[in-house]
Amino acid sequence: MSDTPARTAQRSTYRHGALREALIDAGVAMARAGGGPEAIVLREAARRAGVAPNAAYTHFKDREALVQAVARVALARLAAAMTAEQDALPDLEDPAAVARARFRAVGAGYLRFARTEPGLFRTAFATQQDVSAVAEPAAAGPTGRSAIALLGEALDGLVDAHLLAPQRRAGAEFLAWPTVHGLACLVVEGPLRFLDTGQLDDLTTQLLDMIDRGI
């Protein structure tokens, strides 16, 4: 009889409608605090959500499934950071200046996210087997566009402004993206993580200048 209340309370958690979201939130918190996907533990997520470990398995078959869900949240937040960078741009009248500024803002937002959310940045790409996951709806930001879609849109804007020749547009994402991602990785977990804020800001500007000229 003594364990009846405990069992009743435990069973009630199974009917918690937001359990999946609570588990993902716990995974996001672990990734942020622990520095990446390695910090995500399904049993710990269940504990933080206030349910028994078995309850977590009704939503995620294993730890990897939870990591994938957290990765999609991270990708969506990456897209949101890029959109925020674009939204913060000053009003410009020249269409070419607008297109160039929006293109640069995509890269600046990407690098800002990596610097401010290194754990989520690492998690965002931890489980991706191909580029399709980066573009799927679950990875979209508040505008409904994913990070790769925002980059593609910015490149299309360069074409419309006659800054990028149409014949050079195809595949341009895979020139700009790896360049920015490479710097982000060096900053998050490579030797550049020891640079101070001013040095990183200067490096970001120089990299974006280089990509701008190259594109």
UniProtKB/TrEMBL annotation:
<dbReference type="InterPro" id="IPR001647">
    <property type="entry name" value="HTH_TetR"/>
</dbReference>
<dbReference type="InterPro" id="IPR025996">
    <property type="entry name" value="MT1864/Rv1816-like_C"/>
</dbReference>
<keyword id="KW-0238">DNA-binding</keyword>
<feature type="DNA-binding region" description="H-T-H motif">
    <location>
        <begin position="41"/>
        <end position="60"/>
    </location>
</feature>
<dbReference type="InterPro" id="IPR009057">
    <property type="entry name" value="Homeodomain-like_sf"/>
</dbReference>
<dbReference type="GO" id="GO:0000976">
    <property type="term" value="F:transcription cis-regulatory region binding"/>
</dbReference>
<dbReference type="InterPro" id="IPR050109">
    <property type="entry name" value="HTH-type_TetR-like_transc_reg"/>
</dbReference>
<keyword id="KW-0805">Transcription regulation</keyword>
<keyword id="KW-0804">Transcription</keyword>
<dbReference type="GO" id="GO:0003700">
    <property type="term" value="F:DNA-binding transcription factor activity"/>
</dbReference>
<dbReference type="Pfam" id="PF00440">
    <property type="entry name" value="TetR_N"/>
</dbReference>
<protein>
    <submittedName>
        <fullName>TetR/AcrR family transcriptional regulator</fullName>
    </submittedName>
</protein>
<feature type="domain" description="HTH tetR-type">
    <location>
        <begin position="17"/>
        <end position="78"/>
    </location>
</feature>
<dbReference type="InterPro" id="IPR036271">
    <property type="entry name" value="Tet_transcr_reg_TetR-rel_C_sf"/>
</dbReference>
<dbReference type="Pfam" id="PF13305">
    <property type="entry name" value="TetR_C_33"/>
</dbReference>
